[in-house]
């Protein structure tokens, strides 16, 4: 039997939706976060980007407010990516940090302070794979002390944090990363922090240490989530989605996902029991690109109507009729029907497909239904219940509206 999640993991699952932010020196080049490595740029030349890193347009409060309006309950910001540049004051640990750039501001402090002000949980992304520090190749044990010290600074100097999100152990998959020491440092100063370590594309969902609280699937779309082995600690799951093909800003990548794909990915994450991180890359000066802001607004509109199901509900064994993508979540009191392919209601002159009846059936609902209501407009739906089969008339969207995946709340008799 699967263990019950500890409180911090339960709280993390209830956050449901997060915002991932990639920002670093690479953002000034606007060609992705791996540009130094993939484009084989001379390291000394690349690292001169520190001299033009001004962060002049970085407004943490504005970014956090936009994340909150999107419906995100937490944000994961890159404190150091593989390029090795720190967005915070490393207190002498490294001269390759923001305090040695023209910005001369501890950007992580600004970020955390804004998160605390607006009741958003701040998470720190930390790259363990490092292209800057020669110790990574030359003296790995010394490098691990450097990594541990950089994490200790994050845990000690910024108040309560939501968690740490590590990325890069996959580069030295057979090495001893001294994870007990690293995670022990986190538990010492931030005992309630969620610990996540991105296991890489080949090991999605793998638990690499008992202190791991959530497993990642990167851009993978899993059908099931590994919540841990029987008798061991329950772990959460998390998927990520990029709006185009890159994590960091890439001005020439215009292959953006449709809003429908983004919304359906968020829904799929909850269907399988995973949180979803929606990623954006800031500009070189620290702004959210206009196109990313518009996506965040669209997600926020959807979450305004249906967010309660994303935050509070969990997967069920209830099945939709064969061939349909519909599914059901439950918060223990109410069920939530996630219904796909709803058409817009027109009339005899403008036929948009949502004018007639649209029966959708579900098997496995064994409690007596009292009422079923669309969350977006409070319309009560007609339904028939026969034993554990429920059939509902999923009416079309009102003309002028199409929210991609529609959610109805099922209330039961006492």
Q: How would you characterize this protein structure?
A:
The protein has 414 residues and is α/β, with parallel strands linked by helices. The chain has two domains: 7-312, Glycosidases (TIM Barrel, Alpha-Beta Barrel); 315-412, Immunoglobulin-like, CATH 2.60.40.1180. Helix content is 26%, strand content 21%. The chain is built from ten helices and 17 strands. It has helices at residues 7-15, 35-38, 43-46, 60-70, 107-117, 135-138, 140-156, 179-189, 259-272, 290-312, and strands spanning 17-22, 74-80, 121-127, 163-167, 194-198, 214-216, 236-242, 274-281, 314-315, 319-320, 327-330, 335-339, 359-363, 369-374, 383-386, 389-393, 406-412. The strands form three sheets. An eight-stranded parallel β-sheet has the order 5-4-3-2-1-8-7-6. The protein has a five-stranded antiparallel β-sheet with strand order 9-11-12-17-14, covered by helices on one side. A four-stranded antiparallel β-sheet has the order 10-13-16-15, with no helix packed on it. The model has no long low-confidence stretch (mean pLDDT 95). One of its GO terms (molecular function) is alpha-L-fucosidase activity.
| Strands in their spatial order, largest beta sheet | 5-4-3-2-1-8-7-6
Write down the domain tally. 2
Average pLDDT number: 95
How many beta strands in the DSSP annotation?
17
The helix-and-strand class reads alpha/beta
Strand content: 15-25%
* Text of the CATH class of the largest domain: Alpha Beta
By CATH, the superfamily of the largest domain comes out as: Glycosidases
Distance between the termini: 29 Å
- Low-confidence segments, given as residue ranges, are none
CATH topology of the largest domain: TIM Barrel
